[in-house]
């Protein structure tokens, strides 16, 4: 019996390989594909109401100029199916990022569980922002309270911008004027009650969202400078921050023409 020729053997081998590749292309993968999300001015309004409302004994809110924009990313949901084609496309796209699903959704297996978790994180972030602002201003809970409204946004990454917004709106904050200097300033970073700024992830996509919505300056947790520089949009200035007081100091220096830190 004659043996199959080499071209025939190669063709026969190619059949199972092609089948494996086709299966791999269709198989769901444990990744999420993220894109730049919405931004929101914490000094402005959301749904027709102020994002930040101050109250307390003798508290007066001052009229501000400029903007302090918190930034977000939007990712495929925990129930979404991400396949090889999506991952390959995300790797080559400048406005997308492929991230392990566990890093995007560390808790919960369903969309509702994720929403509940993110809502809890946002509430804690707002509470910490209020405490950090009180500590910076030297006020107690009786002296100053803040109500924060920002619908359909979850997670802790707006903490820094919330805190700066409370300080900027507070009459008698000692800033000597607007923290923004009339600029559109965006940023990201968690905040704790002691005013420490923490890393958040997804920074390159957030810088793109900031530039898209008109920001010229971006406050970034110092630990994420490298990530922020990797795909920095042209014309967007990075300012690294580690603490709330440091962030306020950098904004004052920016306004006065002083020395401002860079990544």
Automatic annotation (TrEMBL):
<feature type="signal peptide">
    <location>
        <begin position="1"/>
        <end position="27"/>
    </location>
</feature>
<dbReference type="Pfam" id="PF05362">
    <property type="entry name" value="Lon_C"/>
</dbReference>
<dbReference type="InterPro" id="IPR008269">
    <property type="entry name" value="Lon_proteolytic"/>
</dbReference>
<protein>
    <recommendedName>
        <fullName>Lon proteolytic domain-containing protein</fullName>
    </recommendedName>
</protein>
<dbReference type="InterPro" id="IPR020568">
    <property type="entry name" value="Ribosomal_Su5_D2-typ_SF"/>
</dbReference>
<dbReference type="GO" id="GO:0030163">
    <property type="term" value="P:protein catabolic process"/>
</dbReference>
<dbReference type="GO" id="GO:0005524">
    <property type="term" value="F:ATP binding"/>
</dbReference>
<dbReference type="GO" id="GO:0004252">
    <property type="term" value="F:serine-type endopeptidase activity"/>
</dbReference>
<feature type="domain" description="Lon proteolytic">
    <location>
        <begin position="155"/>
        <end position="237"/>
    </location>
</feature>
<keyword id="KW-0732">Signal</keyword>
<dbReference type="InterPro" id="IPR014721">
    <property type="entry name" value="Ribsml_uS5_D2-typ_fold_subgr"/>
</dbReference>
<dbReference type="GO" id="GO:0006508">
    <property type="term" value="P:proteolysis"/>
</dbReference>
<dbReference type="GO" id="GO:0004176">
    <property type="term" value="F:ATP-dependent peptidase activity"/>
</dbReference>
<dbReference type="InterPro" id="IPR027065">
    <property type="entry name" value="Lon_Prtase"/>
</dbReference>
């Amino acid at each position: 019996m004659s043996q199959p020729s080499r071209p025939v053997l190669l063709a026969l081998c190619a059949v199972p390989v092609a089948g494996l590749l086709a299966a791999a292309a269709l198989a769901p993968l444990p990744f999420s594909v993220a894109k730049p999300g919405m931004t929101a001015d914490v000094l402005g309004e959301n749904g027709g109401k102020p994002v930040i409302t101050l109250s307390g004994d003798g508290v007066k809110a001052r009229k501000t100029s400029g903007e302090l924009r918190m930034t977000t990313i939007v990712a495929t949901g925990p129930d979404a199916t991400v396949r090889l084609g999506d991952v390959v496309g995300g790797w080559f796209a400048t406005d997308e990022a492929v991230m392990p699903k566990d890093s995007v959704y560390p808790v919960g297996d369903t969309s509702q569980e994720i929403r509940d978790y993110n809502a809890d994180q946002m509430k804690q972030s707002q509470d910490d922002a209020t405490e950090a602002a009180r500590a910076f201003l030297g006020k107690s809970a009786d002296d100053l309270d803040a109500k924060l409204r920002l619908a359909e946004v979850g997670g802790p990454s707006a903490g820094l911008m919330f805190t700066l917004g409370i300080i900027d709106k507070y009459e008698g904050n000692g800033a000597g004027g607007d923290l923004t200097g009339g600029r559109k300033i965006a940023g990201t970073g968690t905040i704790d009650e002691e005013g420490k700024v923490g890393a958040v992830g997804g920074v390159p996509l957030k810088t793109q969202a900031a530039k898209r919505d008109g920001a010229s300056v971006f406050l970034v947790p110092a630990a994420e400078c490298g990530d922020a520089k990797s795909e920095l949009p042209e014309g967007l200035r990075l300012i690294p921050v580690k603490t709330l007081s440091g962030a306020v100091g950098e904004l004052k220096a920016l306004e006065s023409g002083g020395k401002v830190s860079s990544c």
